Amino acid sequence: MSSAEQIEDLPQIRKMRVVSLVEGATLLLLIGVAVHLKHLVGFPLATRLMGPVHGVAFVLYTWMLIQTVSMGGWSRAETARMVLAAFIPFGAFLNERALARRQSALTASG
Asked: Nearest to residue 7, comparing CAs of 70, 71, 65?
């Protein structure tokens, strides 16, 4: 991958990092707050609101993942990590850190 292509990848990686954090945060809110409000306090509206919000964040993560990987330059292992991160609780946060390392490496080499 040329230096110019790497520089073009930086905005996409930044977006992917943000979306990873949003997806992870909405999952935490859904599981850590809304589910407890529903079952412990009897407030089912919390999950009815937070469920779709997390669903949208998950779809956005998936869409961003497709865009990011389709740019090229991603190994099968990196692609698999990003896909699995969407299905493992807290995986989005681990994925964000890996993306931050890649972003730093691209910035340093560019």
From this structure: 71
SS (H, E, C) the chain: CCHHHHHHHHHHHHHHHHHHHHHHHHHHHHHHHHHHHHHHCCCCHHHHHHHHHHHHHHHHHHHHHHHHHHCCCCCHHHHHHHHHHCCCCCHHHHHHHHHHHHHHHHHHHC
pLDDT of residue 16: 95
Is the model's pTM score more than 0.85?
Answer: yes
Tokens standing for residue 88 = 């493992």
Tokens read off for 54: 């997390």
